[in-house]
Amino acid sequence: MFSMLMQSYVVTLQIFALTLLGSIPLGVLVALGRLSKFKPLAWLMGLYISVLRGTPLMLQMFAVFFLPYYAFGIQTGNNYKFTACLIAFIINYSAYFAEIYRSGIQSMPRGQYEAAQVLGYSRSQTFFHIILPQVIKRILPAMGNEIITLVKDTSLAFCIGVAEMFTTGRALVASQRTMVPFAIAALIYWVTCIIIEFALHRVEKRLDYYHD
Amino acid sequence: MTNSVEATHADASRPAVWAREVYKSFSGRTVLDGVSLKIMPGQVVSLIGPSGAGKSTMLRCLTMLDRYDGGTLSYGDLTVCSGDKGSCVYDRDAVKKARMHFGLVFQSYNLFPHYTVLRNVMDAPIRVQGRDKGEVESQARELLAQLGLSEHADKVPDQLSGGQQQRVAIARALCMNPEVMYFDEATSALDPKLTAEMHDLIRSMADRGMAVGIVTHEMGFARTVSDRVAFLFEGRIVEEGQAEEVINHPKDERTRGFLSMAED
Ligand SMILES: Nc1ncnc2c1ncn2[C@@H]1O[C@H](COP(=O)(O)OP(=O)(O)OP(=O)(O)O)[C@@H](O)[C@H]1O
Ligand SMILES: [Mg+2]
Fold first, then answer.
1. Is B130 on the interface with A (CB under 8 A)?
2. Which candidate from B102, B113, B172 shows the least CB-CB separation from A212?
3. Which fold has domain A2-206?
4. Domain regions of chain A by residue span
5. What is the pTM of this model?
């Protein structure tokens, strides 16, 4: 029983890691689009963020899962499940991250941009060397919250039958008529979060050498 | 004193910066109404005037943080924008080049909080000017030494006092070897001793051929540090001349009124 849970825990960790890997950079693009001076793009990204934050992740997962069949008549194989789940997670989290980035970028004082401009920094030099490092420090607590939430949100993948830890736990509970698998799963989620919190704390400490 | 400041390579007979008949308005309200201002190499010019006169606007346009909507601006032989009252066309290439001609010390300093003092001073010369790291570091350390900041080189700005932060901002600007240095409210955060030091520092920059433009509310400081003073009133320079003359014996009615109030 424990080994089955641990096997599916690997899937949970895959969803978690790949979602971050996709949504953290995708969120940057969405945020930059949202802040773009090109109004249609800014509006479109605003809509993207609004829809993805305003509808349940579970429904988004169904949508991604069934869309190929209902919209295009494509028969998807069994291994599309995992892909669909990842796509849904990545776009959903990119919307949350984009909002965090946006508020971080907008909280930067104008004087930082002006100082860089007077010193001759290009726009991209200003963003990557002056603005972004400071934004990262500012948004770290909010990012930490989302990342912790994601650990537990991975369990939503059960709704399209991805064999991650919660799905397996549920199956075990049903077949063996005991709640123990759930208790073990809960413990594993909790320990995972503790480890991530510890890591985040380390990063925060490292960025604590200055205050603004 | 320093090879950094000596690197100012200005031709003493042509203005380091010259704004001719410049205009600026904000949503229909005219803030600069045909202002002309010229600073020669080695000269210190102060811009004084009542609140709302347009001093900061003038400084922001001179440093290209904002754009004139009429007139001509040049740095040395570079014409940044040219036009007349109703129009002015900026030359993108010249704007980029002209940025290397001046340094600005902001009223709020605007240091980069995530960089150490040394990195604040070194980053732009390396990244923007593409200079050699070792050469920049020796200049930066020398500037910090002159400004009494050597022991703070490895601190971050928030560990310094306001006066020290301002000196870091000065070092940061000087390390780019500008021909013109601008100060926004140079002394508003300084005690009398630091103000005296700032006076000497500005004079030494001018003595080495740098052109210095200052916006200030302190008439005593403007009088002693400047060669020339321009009095700005409602977007126009109504009096301009030798610092002592303008401040001690103002001719214009409005200058007199302003200065008599500034006294008390
Ligand atoms: N970005 C802006 N948008 C609209 N109006 C502006 C803007 N910047 C300045 N102004 C207006 O232009 C006028 C001149 O402002 P400016 O800041 O240049 O005055 P100042 O001489 O620097 O005054 P102070 O001595 O108080 O600093 C003011 O009436 C101000 O309200
Ligand atoms: Mg002002």
1. no
2. B113
3. MetI-like fold (1.10.3720)
4. 2-206
5. 0.88
